[in-house]
């Protein structure tokens, strides 16, 4: 946040300097310019990540069980996604939208022992629009995914916007690279009982999957999370982008100077904030 403030002040000073050079006879409405600049900074701050949580403007279409909400979300546009070049934010967005993921583990089944096998699991990184980035899950030892993980914790989760109607509404095949998908690799570990994180996982998971709270008690369900070590995002043509774990949890703010220049200096040039004599 401090870096954003410093960068903002520097860029603002540069833009004012450039504005004065445009026309010696022009009279610039600096009050209006400063007001819009402050509004931009206020907006920008709302997009900065906290320790893990990131708020998003809207949810992608096709994930909401509430039909009225889904009809509203169906009118969302591609701009609901963060810009394509903000890869860490895009990855966080896709994970936050997902109610489930495909999980690949190393099988211990005798017929396919040591083969990678896939399963479907419900996940949640938090409320829609305010995710932590950490995929929590609710597993049972009766399922072969948990059995595989008991021997080898390594796993990969695949989440995609093809999960709902978002890509279909744009006539994008699930393999279309513009239909954003993220692969998160790491180790799935159990969340210890009687810890603050266990209570957090419970709230975040059941907040998205309330019906799973009533699973049979004798099935031994437990909360787990993916400890992420590698992230690959495909959200456009040109191949996957690889995102560091640090950037994933603390997405950098890119091109703030370009944003400010596009938002304000262009206005000055176009005489929206310059009053000629």
Automatic annotation (TrEMBL):
Residues 1-19 form the signal peptide. Residues 82-249 form the CREG-like beta-barrel domain. InterPro entries: CREG_beta-barrel, Split_barrel_FMN-bd. Its main location: secreted. It holds the Pfam family CREG_beta-barrel. It comes from the Eukaryota. SUPFAM superfamilies: FMN-binding split barrel. GO terms for cellular component: cytoplasm; endomembrane system; extracellular space. Belongs to the CREG family. This is CREG-like beta-barrel domain-containing protein. It comes from Lasius platythorax. The lineage of its organism: Eukaryota, Metazoa, Ecdysozoa, Arthropoda, Hexapoda.
